[in-house]
């Protein structure tokens, strides 16, 4: 199966639920039975002979000039991520997030988490929502840090919309939206924990608004594969 370059850079890291996992080089490597396969370079197949020196067309003068501009920019305005207003909001949200997960796992969800077979729709939806919350508990922070760092180092003249930091911000926003949807689903069934869930949902909405304000062009970033193919192409049916 032919791969889509860079598709792994802007995904939610949930391979088991991804319709494009079969087109991801990282997924192919991780799930390969071959002992000879190594991490593939972008655009190469396992048995493909390396064609040319990847640095042959590298403009060293431009690269050095760009690094110089970035260093000068950092000296003028050093970035302290831990004091950034958005990161402060994130830490408040994340602390509540971890508390909520612990509460759900140790009390309300015992009767669902231990079941080997989920027969009722309610059981399936609760388990699915909790699985999403648990899956994404460590996802937002690294992506947000990458996005803020990239934006800070951004040099005028480079492509804005397709910058890596916009892509990192976009996938963080998409995952945060999934977290909100999972929280809403739990609210339908778990009235006893309504107060905690509503509070977390509100914090998530506030964080999402702040992220959208900080990265107004994130939604315009085009993710390889996910934003360029229709469903039929995604599933390899055409």
How would you characterize the overall build of this protein?
Mean pLDDT is 81; it is low at 34-63. This protein has nine helices and no strands. The protein has helices at residues 25-30, 60-76, 85-108, 110-113, 121-135, 140-152, 164-189, 194-214, 231-234. It has 238 residues and is mostly helical.
Total beta strands = 0
Return the string of H and E elements. Answer: HHHHHHHHH
* Helix/strand class: mainly alpha
What is the average of the pLDDT values? 81
The profile of the biggest β sheet is: none
**How far apart lie the N and C ends?**
13 Å
Number of helices: 9
Q: Rg, please?
A: 21 Å
Beta-strand content:
under 5%
Q: Uncertain segments of ≥5 residues (pLDDT<50)? A: 34-63
**Overall 3D geometry?**
globular
Helical fraction equals 40-55%
Which short descriptors sum up this protein?
238 residues, mainly alpha, 55% helix, 0% strand, globular
SSE topology sketch:
Blueprint: H1 25-30, H2 60-76, H3 85-108, H4 110-113, H5 121-135, H6 140-152, H7 164-189, H8 194-214, H9 231-234
Helix pairs in contact: 3-8, 5-7, 6-7, 7-8
How do you describe this structure in short?
This protein is mainly α and 238 residues long. The protein has helices spanning 25-30, 60-76, 85-108, 110-113, 121-135, 140-152, 164-189, 194-214, 231-234.
């Amino acid at each position: 199966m032919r791969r889509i370059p860079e598709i792994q850079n802007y995904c939610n890291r949930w391979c088991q639920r991804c319709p494009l996992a079969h087109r991801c080089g990282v997924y192919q490597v991780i799930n390969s039975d071959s002992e000879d396969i190594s991490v593939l370079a972008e655009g190469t197949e396992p048995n493909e002979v390396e064609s040319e020196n990847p640095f042959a067309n590298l403009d060293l003068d431009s690269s050095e000039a760009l690094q110089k501009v970035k260093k000068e920019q950092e000296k003028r305005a050093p970035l302290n991520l831990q004091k950034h207003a958005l990161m402060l909001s994130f830490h408040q949200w994340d602390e509540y997030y971890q508390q909520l997960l612990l509460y759900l796992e140790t009390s309300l969800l015992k009767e669902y988490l231990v079941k080997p077979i989920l027969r009722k729709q309610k059981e399936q939806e609760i388990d699915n929502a909790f699985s999403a919350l648990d899956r994404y508990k460590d996802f937002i922070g690294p992506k947000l840090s990458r996005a803020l760092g990239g934006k800070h180092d951004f040099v005028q003249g480079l492509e804005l919309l397709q910058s890596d930091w916009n892509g990192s911000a976009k996938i963080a926003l998409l995952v945060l939206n999934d977290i909100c949807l999972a929280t809403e689903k739990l609210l339908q069934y778990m009235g006893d924990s309504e107060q905690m869930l509503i509070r977390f949902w509100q914090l998530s909405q506030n964080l999402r608004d702040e992220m959208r304000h900080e990265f107004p062009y994130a939604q315009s970033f085009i993710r390889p594969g996910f934003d360029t193919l229709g469903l039929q192409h995604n599933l390899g049916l055409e």
